[in-house]
Amino acid sequence: MSPLLIDILERAAWTFIQGFAAVLLASGTIDVTVLQAAAVAGGMAVLSLVKSLAASKVGAETPQTGIDTYSY
């Protein structure tokens, strides 16, 4: 797999996990089932995939991982 595809899938997976956890934590204030939380998190992951794919066509040549690659 290409590094770009791995980066995009990793971002989507982490977005799903974060969204799922956030909705479950908020379930104390709103009535949400686990299936509904998974659906919301899945929607977030899909949006992350779309955004990452769009950004890869417009942005920099390499994935922006946030890791400082400069040598000092």
Describe the 3D structure:
By secondary structure, the chain is mostly helical. The protein has one domain. Helices cover 68% and strands 0% of the residues. Helix 1 packs antiparallel against helix 2.
Features:
single chain, 72 residues, mainly alpha, 2 helices, 0% strand, transmembrane helix, Holin
Overall domain count: 1
Give, in order, the helices and strands: HH
Query: Quick one: biggest sheet?
Result: none
- What would you report as the Rg, rounded to the nearest angstrom? 15 Å
Strand content: under 5%
User: From the helix content, strand content and strand pairing, which structural class follows?
Assistant: mainly alpha
Amino-to-carboxy terminus distance:
31 Å
Task: Give the strand tally.
Answer: 0
Question: What is the number of helical segments per DSSP (H or I, 4+ residues)?
Answer: 2
Which consecutive residue ranges, at least 5 long each, have pLDDT under 50? none
Overall helicity: 55-70%
Mean pLDDT: 85
Keywords: Membrane, Transmembrane, Transmembrane helix
Transmembrane segments: 20-47
Protein name: Holin
